[in-house]
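Colleagues,

For the teaching module next term, I've prepared a clean inverse folding example: a structure given as tokens, and then the sequence designed for it. I'd like students to try predicting residues themselves before seeing the answer, so please don't circulate the second half yet.
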């Protein structure tokens, strides 16, 4: 059989790579296996060669892969733990990359967690799958021609964003194709629950990595027509009349344990303007409604809405509140299990609208447990947002921060998607297409992480559904931005 696959695997001194080498060398299709590490291994198995590589995820490492890839196809395994191939898996990769003409194929896989074998399906890559943590699995199967054409487009030398830059470049010409079959098994060492991984990308220790990812994504947007210059539509805040300057909006369903804390944090607010609180109770079946009614009966500024519709998600409840005639000039978010950090939060948010002349304001929050004790990673400030490039970088990250507030006329025009996950991100992207988003970098908000969160312990099916939706939102937004730029020409 013709030797058509060049294989590349990272190795280190502490892990045995012979299992992976044996798996790859068991088929006659594999030509050479390149071991990539900073230090040469003590022994190099037959069929293997060593490539000096200080950082496997760097641009220089990717270039080394390109210069050593001589087969029609290049297999890159990105983990140092043992790889186990499925039956005739390489033949399947070869057949489907040929049938589809894709530049990269990847597949579902099994993972071993704590000794147990678990199925890990992945999702299809879309035009809007721009987040740098998109999960292709650890086995990447490139057409070598596509690999080298992507490398030829490199314009930056990254220490961490090499693979991200490569797949963006390849996607400009080739399809990235998912095989919905479980073709290999890898070992998963990160056994944290889904909710514990949410904030990895904004952890301060990853800041240098994030800056590189932003640079790679921004360059990709410029090359594909989706980049937006820092030019924004002007906001006229006095163009509409409102009885209230601001409305705090709380969509809620079955949060009897936390809704009272949220209400109290609004009633303590000290402002120079008139505000109200709109609570949309989405047909709670516990005592949430009774708690809201208790406060609404005592305070005429609390608007208690129970929608007629029974098909509303969180986004639909938001739109219900914003379209209500009692909604103020600015609609300010508070989730039903969270709190404002002090009595000055609402004033600071409204001041930011006028000071920064923006259609949306995003604050900074602190992660706390159910008892309001700070938990890692602590303060989330989303400093990756900048006035010049924030709306481009927003297509790469998975959220914009909290608390969020909107100029009501703009939000009434856009409306919030009627879903219960990612609705805030969708609106933020849509707003940023035309308007500046203001930022407040001091903590304003206590964000509770507890078992009641919808994403606290999402299984892989739900995680995939969430990620697919956000990627779809990015695909829609990317298409709209490309059209916006084309209409300017």
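(Answer key — instructors only)
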């Amino acid at each position: 059989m013709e030797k058509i696959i060049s294989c590349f695997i990272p190795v280190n001194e502490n892990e045995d790579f012979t299992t992976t080498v044996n798996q790859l060398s068991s088929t006659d299709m594999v030509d050479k296996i390149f071991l990539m590490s900073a230090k040469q291994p003590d022994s190099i198995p037959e069929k293997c060669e060593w490539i000096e590589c200080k950082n496997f995820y760097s641009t220089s490492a990717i270039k080394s892969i390109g210069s050593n890839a001589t087969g029609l196809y290049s297999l890159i395994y990105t983990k140092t733990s043992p790889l186990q191939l499925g039956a005739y898996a390489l033949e399947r990769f070869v057949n489907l990359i040929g049938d589809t003409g894709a530049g990269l194929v990847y597949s579902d896989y099994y993972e071993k967690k704590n000794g147990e074998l678990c199925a890990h399906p992945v999702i299809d890559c879309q035009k809007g799958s721009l987040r740098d943590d998109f999960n292709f699995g650890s086995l990447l199967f490139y057409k070598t021609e596509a690999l080298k054409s992507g490398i030829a487009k490199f314009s930056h030398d990254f220490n961490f964003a090499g693979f991200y830059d490569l797949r963006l470049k390849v996607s400009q010409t080739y399809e990235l194709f998912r095989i919905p079959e479980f073709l290999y098994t890898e070992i998963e060492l990160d056994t944290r629950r889904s909710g514990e991984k949410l904030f990895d990308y904004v952890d301060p220790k990853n800041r240098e990595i994030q800056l590189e990812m932003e640079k790679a994504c921004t360059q990709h947007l410029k090359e594909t027509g989706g980049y937006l210059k820092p030019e924004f539509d002007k906001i006229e805040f006095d163009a509409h009349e409102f009885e209230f300057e601001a409305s705090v909006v709380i969509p809620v369903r079955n949060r009897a344990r936390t809704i009272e804390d949220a209400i109290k944090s609004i009633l303590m607010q000290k402002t120079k303007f008139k505000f109200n609180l709109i609570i949309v109770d989405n047909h709670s079946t516990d005592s949430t409604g009774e708690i809201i009614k208790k406060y609404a009966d005592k305070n005429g500024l609390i608007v208690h809405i129970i929608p007629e519709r029974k098909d509303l998600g969180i986004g639909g409840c938001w739109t219900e509140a914003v379209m209500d005639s009692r909604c103020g000039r600015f609609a300010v978010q508070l989730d039903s299990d969270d709190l404002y950090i002090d009595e000055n939060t609402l004033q600071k948010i409204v001041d930011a609208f006028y000071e920064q002349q923006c259609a949306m304001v995003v604050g900074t929050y602190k992660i706390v447990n159910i008892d309001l004790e700070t938990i890692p990673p602590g303060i989330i400030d989303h400093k990756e947002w900048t006035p010049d490039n924030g709306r481009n970088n927003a297509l790469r990250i998975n959220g914009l921060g909290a608390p969020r507030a909107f100029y009501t006329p703009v939000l009434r025009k856009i409306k919030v998607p009627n879903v219960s996950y990612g609705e805030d991100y969708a609106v933020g992207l849509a707003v940023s297409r035309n308007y500046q988003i203001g930022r407040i970098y001091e903590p304003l908000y206590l964000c509770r992480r507890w078992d009641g969160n919808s994403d606290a312990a999402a299984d892989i099916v739900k995680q995939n559904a969430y990620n697919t939706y956000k990627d779809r939102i990015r695909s829609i937004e990317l298409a709209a931005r490309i059209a916006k730029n084309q209409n300017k020409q």
